[in-house]
Design goal:
- By secondary structure, the chain is α+β, with helices and mostly antiparallel strands.
- It contains 12 helices and 23 strands.
- The chain has helices at residues 13-22, 61-80, 96-112, 122-128, 150-163, 206-210, 279-292, 355-370, 393-402, 418-426, 432-439, 452-463; strands spanning 2-9, 29-32, 49-50, 84-85, 89-93, 118-121, 138-142, 146-148, 167-169, 174-180, 183-188, 192-200, 218-230, 240-244, 253-256, 262-264, 269-270, 301-318, 321-328, 334-335, 341-344, 409-411, 416-417.
- The relative contact order is 0.16.
- Bound molecules: flavin-adenine dinucleotide.
- Flavin-adenine dinucleotide (FAD) is lined by residues 9-15, 32-35, 40-43, 46-49, 51, 173-174, 201-205, 209, 225, 266, 307-309, 347-353.
């Protein structure tokens, strides 16, 4: 049985960053993922916002981590060569209840150390975003809010972890966890590993993974959500918009994504089938969008998707049975049931923003427990797949001369070349969705109608060792 210092369970954005951060220490690390690819869970369906930190309770770990993470995001995205847009956000109010909320957020943000927040007038907000419904009473302007592609960030962190020596095993759902002396024994469908530290980042299943060895302390009760995406040709707002309606929880969030499309959502509803879309949710979003951005052409909608919110609750033993206490967890839910076992159970927003912070926190805890030394050879840089469409002409020409596949465009909507798709497959994409997540091919107006078969053919060639 192979032994590792640390085993990370789950390769969503949090597991990938935990694995990457462990590589900053002299520790042997294994990352186990149940699915055939990384970042296919909550990480692929969220709002993609890098929050500045005014939403969190002062003094909480969430508040501290969010403010630090937001400041570090340009450096992180530069290291990992992931596109990042610091577009700023406007939280908009149209009445006294909303104005009060904005005032509270301003005070909270300042207490948390978000120094560049400004409360601006409706007229100023309309000047910044001319497409907004008139009659804004006030707006909270946060220049530091940004957006990133969540799955590209997670994939980049995973590639960087592997480059720094972390082993990755896909199609390896953890089915049992035991103890042998001080070590943990982690079992997948076909193999067994021993390790001194387990870091459980199994997303929606993190509670079940912990319960393979420990009694339930936190359990996830998921909710559903819907999103819709408008084509990049729609005249989109320049800032991320949050509509603070007079009726709490009924407002829209609009995100001009790094790809140039406009993301609207999420709706709020009970969960039916994980990641399925509900038409009612989409209709709600369209109605909210019509209220906030009346000129938006909803015929430009190209896609919708469903998401799952992992609402964690504390459990307690009553009359011999574990029951939910009804108490939601305000801060990031971290559990350490025994020395060497660390769980993130049901990390909600802003988990994406804080992925690196959470990873570094967990790795530091593991390093302290194992008395590990820093790894002087750790290299934080990861090279992205070349993107000819984003290059100046001379660089594009040189790239195509060196590798002609970068000159043949297969995805016409998003301008993605054969070379990018081939590289994505070589880096681990196992299906059309994996290629889409790595290159953007199929994300555009025709939703892969024209390139899907060509990508499938390349995947088939790779499976036969021809790529
Ligand atoms: C609707 C919504 C919107 C959000 N919006 C934002 C936002 O705008 N900004 C922000 O900062 N945060 C946001 N978040 C939070 C953020 O998206 C999450 O915190 C983050 O994506 C969680 O990642 P994860 O790695 O925990 O989970 P996942 O991405 O789900 O990864 C868990 C992985 O574990 C694997 N796994 C499960 N069981 C096993 C097993 N037994 N063995 C091996 N592997 C297993 C799964 O296959 C999966 O790949 C949002 C969350 C939601 C739900």
């Amino acid at each position: 049985m192979k032994h590792y210092d640390a085993v990370v369970i789950g390769a969503g954005v949090l597991g990938c960053f935990a694995a990457r951060s462990l590589c900053r220490w002299k520790l042997s690390t294994l990352l186990l993922e149940g699915a055939g690819d990384v970042c296919t869970g909550i990480t692929r369906a969220n709002t993609a916002i890098i929050y500045p930190g005014y939403d969190n309770r002062p003094g909480s770990r969430k508040a501290r981590m969010t403010v630090r993470a937001n400041a570090a995001f340009p450096r992180l995205c530069e290291e990992l060569e992931v596109p990042y847009k610091r577009c700023g956000s406007l939280m908009l109010s149209y009445g006294p209840a909303g104005d009060r909320v904005l005032g509270q957020k301003l005070a909270q943000g300042r207490e948390n150390g978000v120094s560049d927040l400004q409360l601006i007038s409706g007229q100023q907000a309309e000047e910044l975003e001319p497409g907004l419904k008139k009659g804004i009473s006030s707006a909270l302007y946060a220049p530091g809010t940004g957006t990133v592609n969540p799955w590209q960030l997670g994939i980049a962190a995973c590639e960087n972890a592997v480059k720094n020596g972390c082993e990755l095993r896909l199609n390896s759902p953890v089915t049992a966890i035991g103890r042998q002396g001080k070590d943990y024994i982690v079992e997948t469908a076909g193999e067994c590993f021993s390790c001194a530290v387990v870091i459980n980042c199994a997303g929606l299943s993190a509670d079940k993974v912990q319960e393979l060895l420990f009694p339930p302390r936190i359990r996830i009760f998921p909710d559903g959500a819907d999103y819709l995406v408008l084509d990049k040709n729609v005249p989109a707002p320049r800032h991320i918009l949050f509509h603070e309606t007079e009726e709490k929880g009924k407002g829209l969030t609009a995100v001009p994504t790094v790809e140039g499309s406009l993301l609207l959502g999420p709706s709020r509803r009970p969960l039916t089938e994980p990641y399925a879309v509900e038409q009612k949710g989409i209709e709600e979003l369209k109605a909210q969008a019509a209220k906030l951005l009346p000129g938006l052409n909803m015929d430009m909608m190209i896609r919708s998707f469903g998401a799952v919110r992992p609402k964690p609750q504390m459990m307690e033993l009553r009359a011999g049975e574990y029951v939910p206490t009804g108490r939601d967890l305000g801060d990031f839910p971290m559990d350490r049931p025994e020395p060497g076992f660390f769980s993130l159970i049901g990390v909600k927003t802003p988990g994406l923003t804080c992925a690196e912070e959470l990873g570094q926190y967990l790795a530091a805890q593991a390093a302290e427990y194992l008395d590990a030394e820093p790894n002087p050879d750790f290299d934080p840089r990861r090279a992205a797949i070349p993107r000819p469409a984003a290059l100046p002409f001379a660089e594009r020409k040189a790239l195509v001369e060196a590798e002609p596949n970068y000159g043949e465009v297969l995805c016409l909507c998003e301008d993605v070349s054969r070379g990018e798709i081939m590289e994505a497959i070589r880096r681990g994409a196992v299906d059309v969705e994996g290629v889409k997540r790595r290159t953007g091919a199929g994300l555009g107006r025709c939703q892969g109608g024209r390139c899907r078969l060509l990508i499938e053919a390349l995947l088939e060639e790779y499976r036969h060792g021809k790529l």
